[in-house]
Fold this protein.
Amino acid sequence: MGYQTDAVHAGQHPEESTGAVITPIFQTATYAQEAPAVHKGYEYGRTGNPTRLALEQNLAALERGKFAYAFGSGMAATATVSQLLRGGDHVICTANVYGGTARYFRQVMAQFGLQIDLVDTSQIANLERVWRKETKMLFVETPTNPLLILSDLRALAAFCHDRQALLVVDNTFMSPYFQRPLELGADIVLHSTTKFINGHSDVVGGIVITNRPEIAERLAFLQNAVGAVPSPFDCWLILRATKTLPLRMRQINANAMTIAEFLQSDRRIQKVYYPGLKNHPQRELALRQQLDPYGQPGFGGMISFDLPDFETAKRFLTGIKLFTLAESLGGVESLICHPTSMTHASVPAEERRRIGLSDGLVRLAVGIEDVEDLIADLEHGLERV
Ligand code: P1T
């Protein structure tokens, strides 16, 4: 089926007992059994839920994968994927990941004996430098949060598979509409569904998708054994949102391109980070790797730019009204954030400097509003710079 058809229909069919067109919210913790171990495929709400299953099947289809498992947050998805590993194993993670991901590996998994290196995964030489015989997983975010640095997924998949390690990709920033890492050779894809997939800033959730049956079996086990599962209502809200994912992503992408060009033409802004800009150092990779299901390139809705320092950024941010100052991204409404004091505050200052995340950096998550209104709002902020 075509991608938009899958977005609307995959995993869903009229409900059998009533004909309800929309998959119901099966708000139940448990299921009646006819006799011990005789049931309709559902035993207990943590183990399985029909609304959750519909969402999982829908998102598997959109990532062009076979198996998907839903979680209560993006971090719960990352945590469950990391439990595929054992103490003593070594993980390499993209240095400039979402701050919470770096915090999780450094401050939680390290306590369980996992060894971790954070490196710039855009350069394969960096992987060769830290690779060891214990390296079992490469955890990549592309483009990164918030500096929009890309990693070449096809090259990384070949590199990992030569060495019997798993390539895991956090695809939150592109959404499956503009990037499908399984098609490029990744073993596992995960998302914070809180972002573009749900797209309405009203649910926190996560999803993990794979094509490999042995990984799927272990993930299904962990989903039940660890239990970081989402509620049926949250699954239903996300399932409702994925029907419009292609429409939202196209509008977000068009708005973001216009805004990135506007920002780049303004002399008060030092540097704009957006892979769609002609001078982005990795635009050629973006054109190869970030494609919609119909083969058209897309660059997503995330834009960052440098103002001279924190004080200037603060003045700019207090002049903004339509973009809401808030963490998160991917909703229909535009958000703006100051990574150093907000999303990446848990990253040590020295590490932020090392990866080039300046105190004056501002991050936009562009929504679907009229782009003229968004630009007028940014102009108000720039008057204070
Ligand atoms: O917030 P949660 O649903 O647990 O997802 C964590 C997460 C994972 N991966 C990426 C790339 C993310 O951006 C996030 C969460 N990010 C923000 C809240 C933010 O404002 O960047």
The mean pLDDT is 97. Residues 73-75, 98, 100-101, 141, 145, 170, 172-173, 192, 194, 204, 206, 327-329, 343 surround P1T (CB under 6 Å).
